[in-house]
Design brief:
Helix content: over 70%
Oligomer: single chain
Mean pLDDT: 87
Number of domains: 1
Shape: rod-shaped
Low-confidence stretches: none
Number of helices: 6
Distance between the termini: 106 Å
CATH architecture: Alpha Horseshoe
Radius of gyration: 34 Å
CATH superfamily: Tetratricopeptide repeat domain
CATH topology: Serine Threonine Protein Phosphatase 5, Tetratricopeptide repeat
Order of helices and strands: HHHHHH
């Protein structure tokens, strides 16, 4: 105790104080390293989110073009999948509903096509398009013929 008071009076530190300060410095250093790691992680996360956002902007149009391409090649299930993805993530993209209903008609499933068109008309009651009207007539005619044949 006397040694501690004497060292305090003359401004000298005891070995215990030196050890404690050394430990505090180590803790600070480790904390700074950890903060640096977290900072780098946040920077990389921001960069990745920007990249993903840019890619996501093109995703809808890419899926739409792929869907049309699949129709041309006769890959109707793949086309149906592409238009379903668009409808799921971009439900305001009207053209995807039309194309999905069209694919359903190509697959000889007018009832499913009617459901898709009905959903489009529920979401957008004021939407009018001549090609959509023509498709609706074909769907209704196909359903009527199917009912007659049953």
């Amino acid at each position: 105790m006397f040694k501690y008071l004497f060292f305090k009076l003359i401004g000298k530190k005891t070995s215990n104080q030196i050890n404690q300060e050394s430990k505090i410095d180590q803790i600070k250093e480790e904390g700074n390293k950890f903060i640096g790691i977290i900072s780098n992680f946040i920077i990389k996360l921001k960069e990745e989110s920007i990249t993903i956002r840019k890619k996501f902007k093109n995703l809808r149009d890419t899926n739409y073009k792929l869907g049309l391409s699949h129709i041309e090649r006769g890959n109707l299930s793949d086309a149906n999948l592409r238009f379903s993805i668009i409808i799921k993530f971009w439900p305001d993209f009207k053209e995807a509903y039309y194309q999905k209903a069209y694919v359903c008609m190509l697959e000889n499933d007018p009832k499913k096509a009617k459901l898709v068109v009905n959903r489009l008309q529920e979401l957008f009651p004021n939407y009018q398009d001549q090609s959509l009207n023509d498709l609706i007539c074909k769907i209704d005619l196909a359903i009527e013929n199917a009912n007659k044949n049953e």
